[in-house]
Design brief:
The protein is of the alpha/beta class and 339 residues long. 36% of the residues lie in helices and 19% in strands. The protein has 2 domains: 186 residues, Rossmann fold, CATH 3.40.50; 132 residues, Glycogen Phosphorylase B (Rossmann fold), CATH 3.40.50.2000. The protein is built from 14 helices and 16 strands. Strands 2-1-5-6-7-8 form a 6-stranded parallel β-sheet, sandwiched between helices.
Length: 339
């Protein structure tokens, strides 16, 4: 099949959406499909206000021409940004089917930055975007239930994976080290980790709009910036515990990456950690994050690595394919639709 994926999130951004799409495209191509990504790299952009590392596409009139030029058999809208909305509008006008995905708790992110905006407004925005989608993909059964309660329809599962060839166990760490990996932004609640009184050292892998302020406020913490490939795997392997302080993530791929390296996770008992971690085996969930960190140190790293082995990207890609809008064995987007 010719599969078109439309995403406002793409390289050089570093986040779970980009990681998931990179792995998905690699696996789909390995299965013999032709895959094209439509991203901000294909258009003219301006920096997102208050978050300049995120580019926003403005020459959106070119989106339809790009879709028509590829002549896809199916289209997946990965994000609800300007590109996603433009593609949705173009497809909708022509009565063409598509799938979409909810990767983030967008309403909570907006509410955390601008508390005066009602949470319900953010969910109304999301519902409007996903309403025409033939399949709205979410990462966990818990998220399907929560979004269903907010009025979303046609929700279906697309579980994420981990590269166990890259992320794998190493020798046990020789020093006590607590690690955070992810964006350094308000919605990640990173200060809940940085402010903890913990023994040993703290490290932060990632970047974002809060880095400069937090690095100045916590000089005892080592900020490493973005890490990739083997360097990222080594950061997980050196850590005693990955601390995941977010309360708003829909999944949290960094937890799977840490577990694959044998590193246990400390987190709040919220969606994301509740879906990824096996309490007392691969992580500790507690409203007292400090207590969770101290208990997680004692977990068996072998059991952590074993818990990640069942999450393969190939299985995730096959699950993605199974959810694409097909009717009676015929593709919803035959090439004739573009002539």
């Amino acid at each position: 099949m010719r599969i078109l994926i439309v995403s406002d999130a793409w390289l050089p951004q570093v986040n779970g959406v980009v990681t998931s799409l990179q792995a998905l495209m690699r696996e789909l191509r390995g299965l013999g499909h032709q895959v094209k990504l439509l991203s901000p790299a294909d258009f003219r952009t301006v920096p997102c206000p208050s978050y300049p590392e995120i580019p926003l596409v403005w020459d959106l009139w070119r989106v339809g021409r790009a879709i028509r030029g590829f002549q896809p058999d199916c289209v997946h809208l990965a994000t609800e940004g300007p590109l996603g909305w433009a593609a949705r509008r173009w497809l909708g006008k022509r009565g063409l089917a598509f799938s979409s995905a909810i990767h983030t708790r967008f309403p909570e992110y907006i509410h955390s930055r601008w508390p005066w905006l009602p949470l319900a407004w953010g969910y109304a925005f999301l519902r409007a975007f996903h309403r025409p989608s033939q399949a709205v993909l979410v990462s966990t059964e818990r998220m399907r239930n929560e979004f269903s309660a907010w009025g979303f329809k046609r929700l279906t599962l697309w579980r994420k994976g981990v590269d166990t060839q890259l992320f794998r166990p190493a020798a046990r760490p020789t020093e006590l080290l607590f690690l955070y990996v992810g964006r350094i932004a308000p919605e990640k609640n990173i200060e809940a980790f940085l402010a903890l009184d913990l023994p040993g050292k703290k490290q932060v892998v990632g970047d974002g709009p809060q880095r400069e302020a937090l690095q100045a406020a916590y000089p005892q913490v080592r900020f490493l910036g973005y890490q990739h490939g083997q360097a990222l795997a080594a950061a997980y392997q050196r850590a005693s515990v990955l601390v995941f302080p977010s309360r708003t993530d829909t999944y949290g791929l960094v937890m799977l990456e840490a577990l694959a390296c044998g590193t246990p996770v400390a987190a709040f008992p919220v969606a994301g950690p509740l879906d990824v971690l096996q309490p007392g085996v691969s992580g500790v969930l507690d409203e007292d994050l400090q207590a969770a960190c101290l208990r997680a140190v004692r977990l068996d790293r072998t059991h952590c690595a074993q818990s990640a082995e069942q999450h393969a990207w190939r299985a995730s890609a096959l699950e993605f394919l199974a959810q694409q809008p097909l009717l009676d064995g015929e593709l919803c987007l035959p090439s004739s639709a573009f002539t």
